[in-house]
Design a protein that fits this description.
Blueprint: E1 4-7, H1 16-34, H2 43-54, H3 62-75, H4 83-97, H5 104-112, E2 116-121, E3 138-141, H6 153-163, E4 170-174, H7 177-186, E5 190-194, E6 209-211, H8 217-222, H9 233-236
Parallel strand pairs: 1-2, 1-4, 2-3, 4-5, 5-6
Helix pairs in contact: 1-4, 2-3
This protein binds magnesium ion.
Magnesium ion (MG) binds next to loops.
Length: 238
Protein backbone atom coordinates (compact mmCIF):
# COMPACT_ATOMS: atom_id res chain seq x y z
CA UNK A 1 0.00 0.00 0.00
CA UNK A 2 1.29 3.41 -0.93
CA UNK A 3 0.86 5.94 1.86
CA UNK A 4 3.53 8.58 1.39
CA UNK A 5 4.69 10.75 -1.50
CA UNK A 6 8.06 12.47 -1.15
CA UNK A 7 9.18 15.17 -3.55
CA UNK A 8 12.55 16.37 -4.71
CA UNK A 9 12.66 20.18 -4.66
CA UNK A 10 14.73 21.83 -7.38
CA UNK A 11 13.41 21.36 -10.93
CA UNK A 12 10.67 19.09 -9.56
CA UNK A 13 8.52 21.43 -7.45
CA UNK A 14 10.60 24.56 -7.90
CA UNK A 15 11.43 26.35 -11.13
CA UNK A 16 14.99 26.99 -10.08
CA UNK A 17 16.66 28.01 -13.33
CA UNK A 18 15.08 31.48 -13.66
CA UNK A 19 15.86 32.14 -10.00
CA UNK A 20 19.52 31.21 -10.37
CA UNK A 21 19.81 33.18 -13.59
CA UNK A 22 18.23 36.19 -11.89
CA UNK A 23 20.67 35.87 -9.01
CA UNK A 24 23.62 35.77 -11.39
CA UNK A 25 22.31 38.77 -13.35
CA UNK A 26 22.19 40.72 -10.09
CA UNK A 27 25.75 39.62 -9.31
CA UNK A 28 26.97 40.65 -12.75
CA UNK A 29 25.27 44.05 -12.43
CA UNK A 30 26.99 44.55 -9.10
CA UNK A 31 30.36 43.49 -10.51
CA UNK A 32 30.01 45.94 -13.37
CA UNK A 33 29.04 48.70 -10.97
CA UNK A 34 32.18 48.09 -8.95
CA UNK A 35 34.86 47.34 -11.54
CA UNK A 36 35.46 48.43 -15.15
CA UNK A 37 37.07 45.06 -15.89
CA UNK A 38 33.74 43.36 -15.22
CA UNK A 39 32.30 44.85 -18.41
CA UNK A 40 34.14 42.04 -20.21
CA UNK A 41 32.60 39.34 -18.03
CA UNK A 42 29.54 37.55 -19.39
CA UNK A 43 26.56 35.83 -17.81
CA UNK A 44 27.63 32.61 -19.54
CA UNK A 45 30.97 32.79 -17.75
CA UNK A 46 29.24 33.20 -14.40
CA UNK A 47 27.02 30.25 -15.20
CA UNK A 48 30.06 28.17 -16.13
CA UNK A 49 31.73 28.87 -12.79
CA UNK A 50 29.27 26.54 -11.03
CA UNK A 51 30.27 23.66 -13.25
CA UNK A 52 33.95 24.48 -12.82
CA UNK A 53 33.83 24.08 -9.04
CA UNK A 54 31.11 21.46 -8.72
CA UNK A 55 33.25 18.38 -9.31
CA UNK A 56 35.54 18.95 -6.34
CA UNK A 57 32.66 19.98 -4.07
CA UNK A 58 30.05 17.45 -5.14
CA UNK A 59 29.28 16.31 -1.61
CA UNK A 60 29.48 19.78 -0.02
CA UNK A 61 26.48 21.89 0.98
CA UNK A 62 25.00 23.69 -2.00
CA UNK A 63 25.55 27.09 -0.40
CA UNK A 64 29.26 26.25 -0.15
CA UNK A 65 29.41 25.26 -3.82
CA UNK A 66 27.68 28.49 -4.81
CA UNK A 67 30.09 30.50 -2.69
CA UNK A 68 33.05 28.86 -4.43
CA UNK A 69 31.49 29.54 -7.82
CA UNK A 70 30.90 33.19 -6.97
CA UNK A 71 34.49 33.52 -5.73
CA UNK A 72 35.64 32.30 -9.12
CA UNK A 73 33.30 34.79 -10.82
CA UNK A 74 34.56 37.73 -8.76
CA UNK A 75 38.15 36.83 -9.51
CA UNK A 76 37.42 37.43 -13.18
CA UNK A 77 37.26 41.17 -12.39
CA UNK A 78 39.62 41.39 -9.42
CA UNK A 79 36.74 41.73 -6.99
CA UNK A 80 37.80 38.92 -4.66
CA UNK A 81 37.36 41.07 -1.56
CA UNK A 82 33.61 41.42 -2.06
CA UNK A 83 32.65 37.78 -1.70
CA UNK A 84 30.48 38.00 1.42
CA UNK A 85 28.28 40.79 0.08
CA UNK A 86 27.95 39.21 -3.35
CA UNK A 87 26.98 35.84 -1.85
CA UNK A 88 24.29 37.63 0.18
CA UNK A 89 23.12 39.49 -2.92
CA UNK A 90 22.91 36.29 -4.95
CA UNK A 91 20.89 34.37 -2.39
CA UNK A 92 18.52 37.26 -1.69
CA UNK A 93 17.70 37.46 -5.39
CA UNK A 94 17.67 33.70 -5.92
CA UNK A 95 15.15 33.11 -3.14
CA UNK A 96 13.03 36.13 -4.04
CA UNK A 97 12.64 34.68 -7.55
CA UNK A 98 12.12 31.02 -6.60
CA UNK A 99 8.60 29.85 -7.41
CA UNK A 100 6.83 26.52 -7.62
CA UNK A 101 6.00 25.33 -11.13
CA UNK A 102 2.41 26.10 -12.16
CA UNK A 103 1.35 22.44 -11.82
CA UNK A 104 2.41 22.21 -8.17
CA UNK A 105 -0.42 23.72 -6.07
CA UNK A 106 -3.21 21.64 -7.59
CA UNK A 107 -1.16 18.43 -7.53
CA UNK A 108 -0.28 18.86 -3.87
CA UNK A 109 -3.88 19.67 -2.97
CA UNK A 110 -5.15 16.56 -4.74
CA UNK A 111 -2.49 14.25 -3.35
CA UNK A 112 -2.84 15.53 0.20
CA UNK A 113 -6.33 14.04 0.46
CA UNK A 114 -4.90 10.55 -0.14
CA UNK A 115 -1.27 10.52 0.97
CA UNK A 116 1.16 11.95 3.48
CA UNK A 117 3.39 14.40 1.63
CA UNK A 118 7.11 14.90 2.24
CA UNK A 119 9.86 17.12 0.87
CA UNK A 120 13.47 15.95 0.63
CA UNK A 121 16.26 17.87 -1.06
CA UNK A 122 20.00 18.01 -1.55
CA UNK A 123 19.78 21.74 -2.03
CA UNK A 124 19.07 24.77 0.08
CA UNK A 125 15.54 25.42 -1.17
CA UNK A 126 13.91 25.49 2.23
CA UNK A 127 10.15 25.46 1.87
CA UNK A 128 9.58 28.69 3.76
CA UNK A 129 11.85 30.58 1.35
CA UNK A 130 10.33 29.11 -1.81
CA UNK A 131 6.58 29.52 -1.52
CA UNK A 132 5.96 26.05 -0.07
CA UNK A 133 5.69 26.72 3.66
CA UNK A 134 3.30 24.38 5.46
CA UNK A 135 2.73 22.11 2.48
CA UNK A 136 4.46 19.00 3.83
CA UNK A 137 4.14 16.69 6.81
CA UNK A 138 7.92 16.36 6.95
CA UNK A 139 10.97 17.91 5.32
CA UNK A 140 14.44 16.38 4.92
CA UNK A 141 17.47 18.48 4.01
CA UNK A 142 20.94 17.16 3.22
CA UNK A 143 23.53 18.48 5.68
CA UNK A 144 21.01 18.99 8.46
CA UNK A 145 22.49 16.90 11.27
CA UNK A 146 25.34 15.96 8.89
CA UNK A 147 23.02 14.03 6.62
CA UNK A 148 24.88 13.07 3.38
CA UNK A 149 23.44 14.18 0.04
CA UNK A 150 21.61 12.07 -2.47
CA UNK A 151 22.44 9.51 -3.77
CA UNK A 152 23.91 8.35 -0.42
CA UNK A 153 21.79 5.55 1.11
CA UNK A 154 21.71 7.47 4.39
CA UNK A 155 19.65 10.19 2.74
CA UNK A 156 16.82 7.81 1.80
CA UNK A 157 17.05 6.11 5.20
CA UNK A 158 16.41 9.55 6.70
CA UNK A 159 13.40 9.98 4.42
CA UNK A 160 12.00 6.64 5.56
CA UNK A 161 12.61 7.55 9.19
CA UNK A 162 10.92 10.92 8.75
CA UNK A 163 7.95 9.29 7.04
CA UNK A 164 7.59 6.79 9.86
CA UNK A 165 6.37 4.03 7.54
CA UNK A 166 8.14 1.14 5.76
CA UNK A 167 10.09 2.08 2.64
CA UNK A 168 7.75 0.17 0.34
CA UNK A 169 4.92 2.51 1.31
CA UNK A 170 6.85 5.52 0.01
CA UNK A 171 7.22 6.85 -3.52
CA UNK A 172 9.94 9.35 -4.37
CA UNK A 173 9.15 11.83 -7.14
CA UNK A 174 11.83 13.83 -8.91
CA UNK A 175 13.57 14.97 -12.06
CA UNK A 176 16.99 13.41 -11.47
CA UNK A 177 17.42 9.93 -12.86
CA UNK A 178 20.27 9.12 -10.51
CA UNK A 179 19.00 10.83 -7.37
CA UNK A 180 15.25 10.41 -7.66
CA UNK A 181 14.80 7.14 -9.56
CA UNK A 182 17.80 4.80 -9.26
CA UNK A 183 18.94 5.55 -5.71
CA UNK A 184 15.46 5.53 -4.11
CA UNK A 185 14.77 2.16 -5.69
CA UNK A 186 18.03 0.82 -4.36
CA UNK A 187 16.81 1.96 -0.93
CA UNK A 188 13.53 0.09 -1.31
CA UNK A 189 11.29 3.02 -2.19
CA UNK A 190 9.21 3.34 -5.29
CA UNK A 191 10.11 6.05 -7.77
CA UNK A 192 8.38 8.31 -10.24
CA UNK A 193 10.51 10.09 -12.80
CA UNK A 194 9.29 13.60 -13.58
CA UNK A 195 10.47 14.13 -17.13
CA UNK A 196 9.29 17.65 -17.91
CA UNK A 197 11.41 17.95 -21.05
CA UNK A 198 10.71 14.63 -22.76
CA UNK A 199 14.22 13.30 -22.35
CA UNK A 200 15.13 9.71 -23.26
CA UNK A 201 15.57 7.47 -20.23
CA UNK A 202 19.25 7.54 -19.26
CA UNK A 203 19.31 3.86 -18.31
CA UNK A 204 17.52 0.55 -18.61
CA UNK A 205 15.87 0.81 -15.23
CA UNK A 206 12.14 1.34 -15.32
CA UNK A 207 10.79 3.86 -12.86
CA UNK A 208 7.51 2.73 -11.35
CA UNK A 209 5.95 5.54 -13.34
CA UNK A 210 7.03 8.40 -15.54
CA UNK A 211 5.11 11.66 -15.89
CA UNK A 212 5.77 14.82 -17.87
CA UNK A 213 3.75 17.01 -15.51
CA UNK A 214 2.77 16.79 -11.88
CA UNK A 215 -0.82 17.15 -13.08
CA UNK A 216 -0.51 13.51 -14.17
CA UNK A 217 0.93 12.30 -10.88
CA UNK A 218 -2.30 11.50 -8.96
CA UNK A 219 -3.51 9.19 -11.72
CA UNK A 220 -0.06 7.63 -12.12
CA UNK A 221 0.12 6.84 -8.40
CA UNK A 222 -3.40 5.47 -8.34
CA UNK A 223 -2.39 3.07 -11.13
CA UNK A 224 0.65 1.67 -9.30
CA UNK A 225 0.34 -1.93 -8.15
CA UNK A 226 -0.39 -2.28 -4.47
CA UNK A 227 2.57 -4.56 -3.83
CA UNK A 228 6.18 -4.60 -4.92
CA UNK A 229 6.68 -8.34 -4.97
CA UNK A 230 7.78 -8.35 -8.61
CA UNK A 231 10.37 -5.63 -8.28
CA UNK A 232 13.46 -7.16 -6.74
CA UNK A 233 16.48 -4.93 -7.08
CA UNK A 234 18.59 -7.64 -8.71
CA UNK A 235 16.02 -7.95 -11.46
CA UNK A 236 15.83 -4.28 -12.34
CA UNK A 237 19.56 -3.75 -12.55
CA UNK A 238 20.04 -0.96 -10.06
MG1 LIG B 1 15.86 18.07 -8.80
Amino acid sequence: MLTTVVFDADETLLDLRPAVTGGLVAVLDEMRRRAPAASEVTLAELESDWGAVFGDLRTAPVAEIRRAALARSLARAGLNDHLDEVVALFFARRFALTRPFPDVPAALATLRSRYTLGFATNGNSRTERCGLAGEFAFEVYAHDNRLPKKPAPEFYAAVVAAAGVPAEQIVYVGDSWEHDVVAPRRAGLRSVWLNRHGLPRPGDLMPHAEVSSLADLPAALAALPAALADLRVDEVGV
